[in-house]
Amino acid sequence: MLRQLLVEFAGTRPAAAYLFGAADLAVPTRYWVYYHCRRLCAVVGVPVVPPHGLRGTHSTLAIAAGATPSVVSAAMGHTSAELTLSTYTAPGTSETASARATLRVIDGGAGNLAAETGYQRHAPIV
Fold this sequence. Notes:
The chain is an all-alpha fold. It contains 6 helices and no strands.
C-alpha cells in the first residue's frame, strides 16, 4: 500500500528529481520532508519513520537484494562503502546477501551468470 502511494506521489517526475519537493521548492527543507513522511505514514497506517531512517532502510534492502556496497554508497552520496556498511546497513546484511548469491550459483543459478558474463560450464575432468 505504501509503495502504491509513493508511486502515485512521484507521478511523472523525472527519475533524478526529488521525490519530496514542490514546484516552488528548489530543494525541500528537512521540515517539509518530515511533515510529508509523517503524513504519508498516517495515511497508510504504519509507524512514523523519520526521513533519515529511510536511508538505513534503503541501504539494507538494496544490499540484501544484491546491490554492491559501492553502488549503494554512491547512491547515498557517501565517499566510501565502509561508511554505508557501518552506519546505515543492518549488521550481517552484506554477508547474508553474499551467502545467498553463492548458494544460488551452487544450486544451479549459474545460468544467469553465464548470460551476464559469458561464463560457460565445462564438463568435469575425470
